[in-house]
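#struct-help
A.M.: can someone run this one for me? Single chain, 226 residues.
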Amino acid sequence: MSEELRVEAEGETVGEAKWAALRELELRAPGLDRDTVRFEVLSEGERGLLGVGFAPARVVASLDADGTRARAPERDESPLEQLVRELVEHVATAAGVACRVEVVEDDERVTAVCAGPDLGLLIGRHGQTIDALQYLANAIVARQSDGPRKEVVVDAAGYRERRREVLESLAVRSAEQALASGSPVELEPMTAIERKVVHLRLEGYPGVETTSEGAEPNRYVVVLPS
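D.P.: on it. Structure tokens below:
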């Protein structure tokens, strides 16, 4: 019979308690597969009023000691890859999402892909959560990395590809609307990465041109007849 590893931990929030429990499990079982970790919330905690009556959140993290180790890394991670992976893992765990993070670095960007059974919470409504995580990762990498600045892309469950298809379809419809009406068409605010998708899709599109207007984080694309 396999032995089960169990760790109980506390934190100000359930997410912080899960993170602390997971880190303790990783110390006891280096290389564990995060997908196999099970969490049980013992208490969601109590913030209290003006610090009075505070009670920490408590969770138990457990996994089967047999057959739950992640496969050994096929290569050593670069410092930048390690930085991005640890950041994404930390945020995912704090959000209560157990997932495995694979990071690949090339000449232009660092891509972190999250894999797991339920990534909807990490992606968020209309991708707001994963976009915020990607923005945070880019900000931290820009500050801490000594080498040439590289773009960080955070993906989960193929979200980026699906979002690209949606944006390209929106770009074409907006171009057709601009041509039919003879007036500019303003799109919803987007991240710089998403705006780039629209600009590239309409680059060379007959009869229209694109520009970006507004200030971050509400900067948006305008499609207008050329």
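A.M.: thanks! The longest strand covers residues 4-11.
D.P.: also worth noting: The chain has three domains: 1-71, 73-157, 160-225.
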